[in-house]
Write a structure and sequence with these properties.
The chain is of the alpha/beta class. It contains 15 helices and 10 strands.
């Protein structure tokens, strides 16, 4: 913060609980940490692919990747530490090929800690992060998808390819074991929140898995905080092709129940020329904001220019998204001081 008053506003900013996973959640956290220090990221642990999946298989630990992304976004570290966290071992590195050094740090901390959430807390201290990052559960969970034709596939990393093979939509997802216990501090963070954020991120593999953990959706639905679903900018190949914004919301409600979301925040900015064509080759298009159908679900629609103007991908702008979220909160907060 540039001024003492600015720092005071940051320190007394709203209590925010952000629920999700993947790059979407970390992008939002990067911006929000400039507006409030009172951030809690509640992150899925259903991933079983890539370097995270390898560590999960070899060490029997929860997947560290999404957790690490969030800690990177909230970290206040020296440039060398930032480079270390994001370093990936190149091809030809044997068993370490493609592995993130940040994942290895978290794996080592998990080895000397009593629980995975304790390892995450220790790494958060090392990185001097703004706010907190919490795994939604310490349980060893797997994600299973059921398709509209009745076919099923077990494993988060297998869902995309299996969906393309089946050529039909995902009907539902569930965790195995079902309804694992939530981390108590994750439920407490939701209960204490002034603002609850769902997304952005992969609908079925990053956002919804959190809602399937026992106590999470119940805490969100019972909360009197402002509850915002941040809709993705594009449909996702192998997951949400052809789905409108209202269909994203209906899937959320089907997996949790009514009262989960107050506001759906959608992008109104055009995606840069060239990107739409490139995404179309992957069966991905800008999500249609079907306002009347969203409002029929009892959810308010708010559109803002959220797309990045500089990224080589159709993603949210760090600053635009954070600003829009905080403006929405301030408009609806009892005391508009943040």
């Amino acid at each position: 913060m540039n001024t003492m008053e600015g720092r005071r506003r940051w320190e007394r900013g709203p209590q925010v609980a952000a629920i999700g996973g993947g790059t979407g959640l970390s992008t939002m956290l990067r911006g929000l940490k400039n507006h409030t220090r009172n951030l809690t990221a509640i992150v899925t642990v259903a991933d079983d692919g890539g370097g995270s999946g390898k560590l999960r298989e070899d060490l029997g630990m929860p997947p560290p990747g999404d957790i690490r992304h969030c800690m990177e976004a909230l970290a206040n570290t020296e440039p060398v530490m930032e480079q270390l966290l994001t370093y990936r071992f190149p091809a030809g590195s044997g068993n370490l090929t493609g592995q993130s050094f940040g994942n290895l740090i978290l794996a080592a901390l998990n080895g000397i800690s009593d629980s995975f959430d304790q390892a995450v807390a220790r790494m958060s201290e090392v990185l001097a992060i703004t706010g907190r990052v919490l795994p939604v559960t310490n349980a060893d969970v797997a994600l299973e998808a059921t398709f509209e034709n009745g076919a099923r596939v077990l494993g988060e990393s297998k869902i995309c390819a299996f969906k393309k093979e089946q050529d039909c939509r995902i009907a539902s997802v569930r965790l195995l074991p079902e309804r694992p216990p939530a981390l108590p501090s994750a439920v407490e963070a939701i209960e204490a929140a002034d603002l609850i954020l769902l997304g952005p991120g992969s609908l079925y593999t990053s956002v919804i898995p959190n809602l399937l953990v026992d106590g999470i959706s119940e805490a969100v639905r019972a909360s009197e905080a402002l509850k915002i679903y941040v809709c993705n900018i594009m449909t996702q190949d192998g997951e949400t092709e052809g789905m409108t914004a209202s269909e994203h919301l209906k899937a959320l409600l089907d997996h949790s129940g009514p009262g989960l979301v107050d506001v759906c925040l959608c992008n109104s900015a055009p995606v840069r020329p060239g990107l739409v064509e490139r995404y179309r080759e992957e069966d991905s298009v800008p999500i249609q904001v079907d306002q009347e159908k969203i409002e029929a679900l009892g959810i308010e629609v708010v559109t803002r220019p959220l797309a990045s103007e500089t990224s080589d991908f159709a993603r949210h702008s760090v600053s635009r998204l954070a600003r829009a979220v905080m403006e929405l909160y301030n408009e609806r907060a009892d005391t508009k001081v943040f």
